[in-house]
Amino acid sequence: MSLSVEIVATKPYEGQKPGTSGLRKKVKVFTQPNYTENFVQCILDANGAALAGSTLVVGGDGRYYCKEAAELIVRIAAANGVAKLLVGQNGILSTPAVSSLIRHNSALGGIVLTASHNPGGPENDFGIKFNCENGGPAPDAFTNNIYQLSTAIKDYKLVRGLQIDISKVGVSTYDVAGKPFVVEVIDSVANYVRHMEEIFDFAKLRDFVSGKSTGKPLKMRIDAMNGVTGAYVREIFLNRLGASDASVVHTTPLPDFGGLHPDPNLTYAKDLVDTVAQGDYDIGAAFDGDGDRNMIIGSKAFFVTPSDSLAVIAHYLEAIPYFQKNGVQGFARSMPTASAVDLVGKKLGKEVFEVPTGWKYFGNLMDVGRLCLCGEESFGTGSNHIREKDGIWAVLAWISVMQHTGKSIEDILKQHWSVYGRNYFTRYDYEECDLEPCNEMMATMEKNITAAEFVGKNYSSSGKSYKVKQADNFSYTDPVDKSVATKQGLRIVFDDGSRIVMRLSGTGSSGATVRLYIDSYEKENVLGQASVMLKPLIDIALEISELPKFTGRNAPTVIT
Ligand code: G6P
Ligand code: ZN
Q1: Ranges for the Alpha-D-phosphohexomutase alpha/beta/alpha domain (predicted)?
Q2: Which of 38, 192, 372, 551 could lock onto 97 through a cystine, CB 3.0 to 4.6 A?
Q3: Closest alpha carbon to 156 in 16, 284, 12
């Protein structure tokens, strides 16, 4: 039976503008009549002529509304001439798994259903993001096009009668207006696990994790935070690497993440931090809802900042078979990320790039072979094996480094600092502030720090003095396609390399979140307490930005 395509009249919704990482709104916004349909149609239209006959990947982090959205996408894609969809079973695919699948199947792209680390459930957030054929998040020009289309949309296409059961793995072929349309529901983890096995030496890691090569099993606590990584974690750490059942927790993906805020940091992964602090663990790790972020802690909850994590992995890259085989190209970090990796790059004679916040800015450099490892302070670490950050990959990299060095995480860090010096780093988040005063604060601060007399100014607090060397609103020209991204965050760089960075988050779904990043380098004094070492610079940042005055906040909501 041939299924027919229906053209459904619709009207534009305001505000369908993708942020740092796709469109994120409350579930209630997405479930308004035609809201999701409009946005999906615009994503497909933004692909132009390439869409007809293409293959797309569809999946998400299992949060509330994922399954319904996936089924809707199947019906809209069928109506728009897509030839084949690869859909994760029950709509489940981690963000790194989508990226890997796009690349392995030479797909035109993928639609990722996630609001990443934002809470889920009917009262919370949902999100839709498009990744292009390199497997990476769509670049600015592409998402701007989606937005433009969303402001003028008049209708969308739908195959209303297409019945699909995405709970069972298998291939279904439909006849849509005389043309075949294929939906392949795939095992959510198989391709990704195979990919990890190609990158890391699983035999060696298994001996290390199970204790065969050391005489003592590695004690780990891997916390999937009820997000999408649960299924991946069980297969990799339990079945392939032989860890004990107790090594993994919260491994059932839940639509509301069991009420957890699935963001792997010291505040929201408190359960992990407390458990590892009290127990006898060698490594603790957590991931966010869609599995691209990671947090690593060592014994007694010794915290590894994402900036340090990136630098350490960079230093030991050659312990990982993938890099032995493919070589080590350049490194990169986002602008607010502390510059620890720059020092490793310098020592190893590698290019190091500083890009705006957002994983999409790494893609071009990877595609032309100039970049193999990158990371962000926002708990993202990854390599050119895909075009997304990859939480599980980061843990496997860390376990590889532990196996290679035979050292504890704390000792690995202390040794690293003794060689390179230490970038003390912290981030203060002020969540859900009113937008207007925040915009005003940013505008005022920009005006003040870009005034001619600002450079050279001295600031002192608690006996420490800093002299301004440079201050601007960060802008970036992509070295490959020469596209320019402006207004990517206010930064003040001091004489000794210490930095204050301030920007508004691009991933929230309402109001404004102010992020204040403090980065201070010490060559010798590497064993201090970060909060103490950074206090003077934090006070100076609050003074320059007048943050308490504009936001009415005297303390951050989250400190990482
Ligand atoms: C997402 C992106 C990251 C980015 C982060 C920043 O996780 O994938 O690449 O660093 O958002 O979020 P923000 O809220 O600071 O804009
Ligand atoms: Zn994420």
Answers
A1: 16-155, 191-297, 308-420
A2: 192
A3: 12
